[in-house]
Specification:
This protein has 374 residues and is α/β, with parallel strands linked by helices. It is 32% helix and 19% strand. The strands form five sheets. Strands 11-8-7-16-15-14-13-12 form an eight-stranded parallel sheet. Strands 1-2 form a two-stranded antiparallel ribbon. The protein has a two-stranded parallel ribbon with strand order 3-6. α9 links the parallel β13 and β14. The two termini are 29 Å apart.
Length: 374
């Protein structure tokens, strides 16, 4: 089995092509699991630059810091089964290369309550999500000026749209608490910044990746600021044409981008999901990981996205779909999210590697039923 991982939140599926990286959960425990299972694995470290990667064996001191026995390490050249990219200070991800990253999008379903946000993180962790995601805005920059004074009924009474957006927004104290809690619970978090000021705000946190919201795909200045963060970027493509997607990928660069098929209808009816776009994106961007950000009400279509080749699945999570808020109807409650993760993990195993072979379980039937054998 081939394992490839690095320390800045990406996993390489082809050692010769770093552009095939895709973001995953920080799980150094998987290193220990691999060694405990008796795998002989070659680990390399790398320093990245625009001209390429300088590969070298991992050091004994690095392994000691991770609790991995050095005597089980086999060093080698870049044709190794496992790579480590040490541009970050600590390991972010260790997964078998077929692992699908499942993200629980909290978004604004916290309704401005830190207590609710932490409860959603806990539910996402219990459900088996790899990461949780938030949204970060500077409302007076991100909200179009002509929308500010529109009156809206909210749990805080009738307020203007800009007041409503400001009421939902978390600041430094809340994000510090979110960051601490996620580290305590061993689940990674990231966010989608909706303006350049939000990008600068998020730079203070050691997020494994960052997301471009569908609404921001044509904002060249924001795309450039997000690229400057130097993190893997998830690009959501709702409300977008193929030409707009291509321009965004060109700005962000293919090296660390995940392109997610998405429809921005909340909730999206099945006839508008058009899941075969996942296959279209795989053909159009052969060196880019393809994902799916779903806003439908069921679970089966998100699982089907994995069967079509999506390696990154994002769904909104909520404590209850009956709660107030624009995203609740397109969200998944905790028990449903647990079923979603379970079914995706089953499908990962069931998809296999595509090589036709006689399995061990078939051998008794082969002996019993086949009279003429090759």
């Amino acid at each position: 089995m081939r394992y490839c991982f690095d320390l800045d939140g990406t996993i390489c599926t082809q050692e010769r092509d770093y552009a095939m990286a895709r973001p995953l959960l920080p799980m150094i425990e998987r290193v220990r699991d691999l060694f405990a299972a008796g795998h002989s694995i070659v680990i390399m470290t790398a320093r990245g630059s625009e001209t390429g990667l300088d590969w070298r064996p991992v050091t004994e001191a690095q392994l000691e810091a991770w609790g991995v026995p050095y005597e089980r390490l086999v060093t080698g050249k870049p044709a190794a089964d496992v790579y480590v990219d040490d541009r970050a200070a600590a390991p972010w991800s260790v997964m078998p290369s077929q692992h699908v990253c499942v993200v629980a999008e909290i978004g604004i379903n916290h309704q401005g309550s830190l207590e609710t946000a932490l409860a959603l993180i806990e539910k996402a962790k219990e459900a088996g999500a790899d990461l949780v995601k938030f949204q970060k805005r500077t409302p007076r920059l991100a909200v179009p000026r002509d929308q500010w004074e529109i009156q809206r009924e909210t749990p805080w009474g009738t307020v203007s749209y800009i007041e409503y957006k400001e009421q939902l927004e978390f600041g430094e104290a809340e994000y510090d608490a979110i960051d601490r809690y996620c580290r305590e619970r061993s689940i990674g978090w990231f966010a989608s910044p909706w303006d350049v000021e939000a990008v600068e705000f998020l730079k203070r946190y050691d997020m494994p990746l960052v997301k471009v919201a569908s609404a921001s795909i044509t904002d060249g200045a924001l795309l450039g600021a997000i690229r400057s963060m130097g993190k893997p970027v998830v690009l959501s493509t709702g409300m977008s044409t193929m030409e707009e997607i291509e321009r965004a990928v060109e700005v962000l660069g293919e090296s660390l981008v995940v392109v997610c098929h998405c429809n921005s209808t909340y909730p999206c009816p099945p006839e508008d999901l058009n899941l075969r776009v996942i296959e279209t994106l795989r053909r159009r961007f052969p060196n880019v990981a393809i994902g799916y950000s779903g806003h439908e009400t069921g679970l089966s279509t998100s699982v089907a996205a994995v069967a079509l080749g999506a390696t990154f699945i994002e769904r909104h999570i909520t404590l209850s779909r009956a709660m107030w808020g624009t995203d609740q109807a397109a969200s998944v409650e905790p028990q449903g999210f647990e079923r979603l993760v379970r079914d995706i993990r089953v499908l990962e195993t069931a998809l296999g590697d595509g090589e036709k072979r006689v399995t061990a379980g078939e051998l008794p039937a082969l002996q019993k039923l086949r009279g003429v054998r090759s």
